[in-house]
Structure formats: C-alpha cells, structure tokens
Design the sequence.
C-alpha cells in the first residue's frame, strides 16, 4: 500500500453538529468530538477526562488528580470540592504548590485555570497525561501542535467545568442535564459563564420579537467547523431576514451541502505530503481538492445561465445556487437550501476573496476567450438589499459570529443611512440596532473590528444604548451551540426531549 492510499484509507469524516437531535448537554458535547477547532477541544477533552475517571474507578492509583490554583473563595473552587465529595471521581483539588510539596508521580492530572508558571517544569515532570482547562492558552510545551490539540480546552473554566461535569454525569451516572438547566447552573459562576447565559437569553428575546428585523453575520471557518446546520436552523426559524458571510465560509458550506465531506487531520502526515495529495488543511481538518472540483461544476452550471447582459449582487448568485442545490440534492439540509426555501438574502461583501470568487474569475476568462460577455458582480446591489431591509424595520437585531467584513458591512448600514439622509436633505428616523449578540474571541485592545464592542459601535450611532446586548469573548464553536439550543428551544423551534 502506498503512503497516499494509506492516508486516504484512514481519513475520518467530520459530521455537522445537529442541534435538533441534541436534547442534553452531553448530546452536544458528544457531537462536538466530530467537529473542528474549539468544539473538538471540548468534545475530545471531555472524552479524555471520562477515560481517566473510568481508569480511576478500576485502579485507584490512576484516579485523576485535579490541580487548581483558583482562589478558595470562588464558585468554581466550590464546584471542584463538591465533585470530590459527591462523586469521588477525582482526588483534589490541590494547589500546584501542594502537589509539588506532597505528591509523587501522578498518572492522570486535570489542571484547571491558571497556575504558577515558575513551578510549571517541576509540575509537568510529576504528571503523566495532563488535560488543561483555561482561557489563557496555558499548557505543557509541545502539547499543542499545529493542527493537533487533544488534551486542552481553551475556554474559561467557569463555563467549561459545568459543561464537562454535566456530560460526565450522563455518561457515568445516567443523570441527564438539559440546556435550560445548564443555563441556570452557569448563572452562579460569573465571567464567561455569565456572558454565555446573557447571549442565550438575548438571542431568545431577539428571535421572539416579531417586530425585530434580525440580521446574522458570520466569519471564520464555521462550515469547516461543522456549524452549518446551526446556521440553517436559524434561517429555518423565519426570524433571520438577512445574512452576511465570507465567501470562503459559503464555499465550504456548498461543499457540505452538495454531499461532500471534510475530514480529521492526522498530524503524523506532513503538510508537504498533504499538498502533494491535494488535501488542503484548515487547522485540524482536511478539505480534499476534489471537493472544489465538485462545486466548480455546480457554480459553472449556474453561471452558464447568465448571459452577461446585466450586473448581479452576490445575493442573487447565492439564491440561484440554492435553487440548484434544492433541485439536485433534495433532502440535504444546508445554508443555501434553507435560504432559498425561506427567500432570505445572503451577501458576501468581499465576494472575490473566496473559492467562489476564484470560480467566477476563471469563468470570466473562459467567457472572454469564447467571445461571450463578461459577468459583472456589484456589491452595491447587496447593499441595496441590506439598506431597504434596515430602513424599513420597526426594530433591528444583529447576531454576529466572528467579526471581519460581514459584521462591519452590516453594522455600517446605520452610518450609511445617516449620511444618506443628511447629504440628500431627507427626513427619516434613526436606523440603529436594538438587539445585539456577538460571539468572538478577539480582545478589544487589538484594534480591529472583530474586537470592537457594542459600546464603541454606539459612539458611531450603530447601536441603541438602551437595547439588550450580549458579547461573549470565546471560540464560537465552543459556546454558540449551547446558546442557540437554549434560544431556539425556548422559542419552540427545537423540540424538547419526550
């Protein structure tokens, strides 16, 4: 067997997270193991902790030890103590200082929160397998490699621990926890846990408000991350009226929506070998080059219908691709299929910065070679759709995953409207967002839009200062599924378990 055939035979397909089938916290965490990025961190990290606990139940010398320098007077510390008292799954929690003073070799360790970096080498030398849970990217050197990070969960412990514990209780005790119960539990902890709860409630209220015209913006590799069905579900509620997304995200979504797969990355295979095999890596996932060849056929089939006699916006192009998907891949749920059924416009403000843009550029070169009119795409036509929706809305809401051009372009409708009225000498009411939910790990002091706060946006008169808003600083693939399951469950879209 050649190296190429050996690699291909071992490819493990990823699976989209389907929240409609996730009735408990553990259902979501289990599904995350088949996703990418932070979601897989949480899913795989929980699997490892479960494995450690089961080993400890068979052999007490392998019982996992919790190491945590979290202050004693904190809800998270109380939670760790209760775990030991009520379930006896772990030893500890012990501070790193106590571990160094009193413990010998430790086979399994779970390190929760930040710890003393001056003692870390000695701490690492005492422990065998270690799982790290913190939001500051602190872990044993070499544990996180390019595209491979199975024993870390990089999100704040006040959110992660209650989630992991809820999953473990179902796996080890058959005690199920639904997302509403999780939200009530998270309210105790503050920090990231508190902002996730705020986002869940704000999203629920925004979607329940029939007078709110809601917009969804999304950037980052969320479709490779297997979050496509979350977006499709939002569309299918009928409560999202406009979507702005990156072209890359839409291309990867089209790949999945037309029956192709993404795969888990195996770090034992060098990137040079992957390049030779046509397996493009997206962090911890693989995108076969043949997927792009497949969607090129779909894109060309749509482009061939255009005669070049008029310009189009990206939203019209996506609608036509959506119709093609519905006609040729019936029953496959996807962003474009749902948007077509719901007649929801999707726009990519930076359309040519994507695989789909590459396809159009190449198709135009072929059209010119063959004496046909060039196809012209005009982003102002997308702006017209956004502008008309926003300026005719009773209230506006925005739900943003990530930042970048999709978020900026959508929020820009407020100053655009203000300038439009003033310079044309027209009268009209202010156009600004009332509801806002944003999930993005970016820090505000980095100076780019992904970290721009709603308060800052308010200074540009993009946001109503009195409106309900929630901003969550975390990897969206980790927290978004819980917030959305709660919001759509509360508004009746997702069904509760029987």
Sequence:
């Amino acid at each position: 067997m050649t190296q190429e055939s050996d690699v291909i035979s071992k490819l493990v397909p990823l699976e989209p997270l389907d929240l409609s089938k996730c009735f408990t916290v553990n259902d979501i965490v289990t599904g995350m193991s088949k996703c990418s990025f932070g979601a897989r961190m949480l899913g795989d990290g929980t699997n490892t902790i479960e494995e450690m606990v089961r080993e400890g139940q068979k052999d007490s010398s392998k019982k996992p030890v919790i190491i945590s320098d979290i202050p004693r007077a904190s809800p998270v510390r109380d939670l760790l103590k209760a775990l030991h008292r009520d379930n006896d799954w772990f030893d500890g929690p012990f501070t790193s200082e106590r571990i160094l003073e009193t413990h010998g070799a430790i086979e399994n360790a779970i390190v929760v929160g930040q710890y003393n970096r001056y003692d870390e080498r000695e701490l690492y030398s005492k422990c065998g397998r270690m799982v790290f849970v913190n939001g500051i990217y602190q872990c044993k050197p070499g544990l996180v490699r390019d595209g491979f990070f199975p024993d870390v969960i990089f999100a704040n412990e006040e959110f992660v621990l209650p989630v992991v514990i809820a999953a473990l209780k179902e796996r080890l005790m058959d005690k199920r926890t639904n997302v509403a119960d999780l939200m009530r539990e998270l309210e105790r902890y503050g920090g990231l846990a508190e902002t996730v709860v705020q986002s869940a409630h704000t999203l629920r209220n925004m979607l329940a408000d029939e007078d709110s015209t809601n917009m969804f913006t999304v950037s980052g590799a969320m479709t490779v991350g297997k979050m496509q069905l979350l977006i499709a579900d939002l569309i299918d509620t009928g409560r999202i009226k406009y979507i702005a997304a990156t072209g890359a995200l839409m291309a990867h979504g089209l790949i999945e929506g037309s029956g192709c797969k993404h795969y888990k990355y195996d770090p034992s295979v060098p990137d040079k070998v992957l390049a030779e095999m046509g397996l493009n890596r997206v962090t911890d996932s693989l995108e076969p080059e043949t997927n792009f060849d497949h969607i090129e056929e779909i894109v060309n089939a749509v482009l061939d219908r255009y005669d070049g006699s008029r310009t189009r916006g990206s939203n019209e192009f996506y609608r036509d691709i959506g119709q093609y998907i519905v006609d040729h891949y019936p029953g496959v749920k996807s962003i474009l299929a749902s948007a077509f059924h719901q007649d929801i416009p999707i726009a990519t403000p930076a359309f040519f910065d994507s695989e789909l843009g590459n396809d159009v550029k190449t198709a135009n070169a072929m059209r010119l070679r063959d004496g046909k009119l060039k196809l012209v795409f005009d982003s102002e036509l997308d702006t017209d759709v956004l502008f008309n929706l926003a300026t005719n809305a009773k209230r506006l809401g925005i739900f943003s995953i990530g930042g970048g051009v999709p978020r900026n372009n959508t929020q820009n409708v407020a100053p655009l409207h203000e300038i439009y009225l003033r310079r044309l000498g027209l009268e009209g009411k202010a156009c600004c967002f009332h509801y806002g939910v944003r999930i993005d790990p970016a820090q505000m002091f980095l100076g780019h839009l992904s970290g721009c706060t709603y308060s800052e946006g308010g200074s540009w008169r993009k946001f109503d200062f009195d409106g309900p808003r929630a901003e969550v600083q975390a990897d969206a693939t980790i927290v978004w599924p819980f917030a959305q399951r709660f919001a759509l469950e509360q508004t009746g879209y997702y069904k509760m378990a029987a």
